[in-house]
Amino acid sequence: MKYSTHIENPDVVLIGSGIMSSNLGAMLKRLEPTLSIQVYEVTEELAQESSNGWNNAGTGHAGICELSYTPTREANGTVNVSKAIQIFEQFEHSRQFWSYAVSSGMVDNPKEFINPVPHLSFVHGQEMVDFLKARYEGMSAHHFFQEMDFTTDRTTIGGWAPLLVENRADIPIAATKMNNGTDVNFGAISRKLIDWLNRQDHCGVASNHRVVGLKKTDSGWEVRVRDLDTNVIRTNHAKFVFVGAGGGSLSLLQKSGIPEAKGMGGFPIGGQWLVCENPEIIKKHQAKVYGQPLPAAPTMAAPHLDSRILDGKKTLLFGPFAAWTTKFLHKKGSVTDLPFSVRPDNLFTLINIGIHNFDLVRYLLQQGTQSMEDRMEVLRVFYPAARTGDWKLIDAGIRVQAIKETDGKAGIVHYGTEVITNADRSISALLGASPGASVSVNIVLDVIKLCFAHLLDRPEGKARMKEMLPTYDEDIKLPENANRFREVSRKVDEVLGL
Questions:
Q1: Which end of the chain is more exposed for a tag (fewer CB within 10 A), N or C?
Q2: Three-state SS for 363?
Q3: Partners of 13 in the beta sheet?
Q4: Model pTM score
Q5: Using alpha carbons only, how large is the chain's radius of gyration in Å?
Q6: Who's near 190: CB < 8 A, 6+ residues apart?
Q7: What residues pair up with 270 in beta bridges, in sequence order?
Q8: How many other CB atoms are found less than 10 A from the CB of residue 199?
Q9: DSSP 365
Q10: 24-47 per-position pLDDT tens digit
């Protein structure tokens, strides 16, 4: 469906129609119904880049199964689980807002965007078995993860996920499981929220429109937009701009000229999935299974074998595999995106990345030269009985790893996201990767607190936010708030059908 509604001189311009812009636009409109909001999307359909269901893992990242959030054991043998606890709490904000959107009539049919699926961590080799047990002990001690199970018993693991033990050699294995994991179609919830926003007074959505210029003015921002159907460029003005354009955010930040973006760079990494084409195998597996991270791989590349609900039907994906690319966007990108992003202010940062991250470069080269059989061998670490003829390789989305200079050193932002906001808080932009989509509500809440604090300072504003996010001003991580967490979480589960 193409959108072509235009609002002149809106309070807010949102660039991109994915999960970040959709959550921010919907929350702002609920927080202050008089706000005028304009969305610009470069593709004809909404949420077709990073938020598209085929272009991301679809995992409701809650720290349950992702070993990258608990990467190492301490000297005393314990595992620090604080990052997993933090991610869990942030995903709770997303669940709360989406359940509010359903219960308030903003969106319908939650089964079209969120479904329950057990989350498993799976490891092999005695060292990793010992690690997983220590991780389980640390996590299950917290009320977020009290329902987690741990086992080294093959029969039990086979009951959880039969493919993991089929034809497996006699080596130590272990797994943890929580039943309250989720599979999320971030594109579907994005489209539902943007469609709701488009129906509100003083709000508009224009798809197939590319923002080609951002210029600071005394009253906000001049936004130049090209209609890709007619090639006509129009100019609009907004008090606040949010750049939620996925891989396209970096170039727009550079166009804005804000000093906060100086030195920022981006490193694009393409993604690929193995997709199962055998219905009998798909039927056997009902879980998201995350394994041991690959050496030198970026955060998002931890391998996983996933039950998914995509295009209304169950499927089975394995990956992701990385692919070399110079494009910043999957559908609307150009091979010149990376070279054109190199500027005098970020050249040294990018060179440093190449010099000091040779393992990452080598990983990308190795991934890009893999054959189908090479990829199948990685799959067989999870599913030893996998047959090549049952699987096909597809291209997925592109993630642009944010690169910035801190303390005189260049570094890739592996974890979370990087939100750039200028000094007068009239523009914010988001860069980064996993677990961004899952914790998108928490991210845009931070943007609201920073750039729209005046809306939250009013009693009615705080009351409206409490309706959307019942625990937004509470610390549900604390043991004394365990019952409050359970109460709110149970209501969310009921509304979302989980």
A1: N
A2: helix
A3: 38, 241
A4: 0.91
A5: 22
A6: 17, 18, 19, 21, 22, 46, 47, 51
A7: 323, 398
A8: 11
A9: H
A10: 999 999 999 999 999 999 999 998
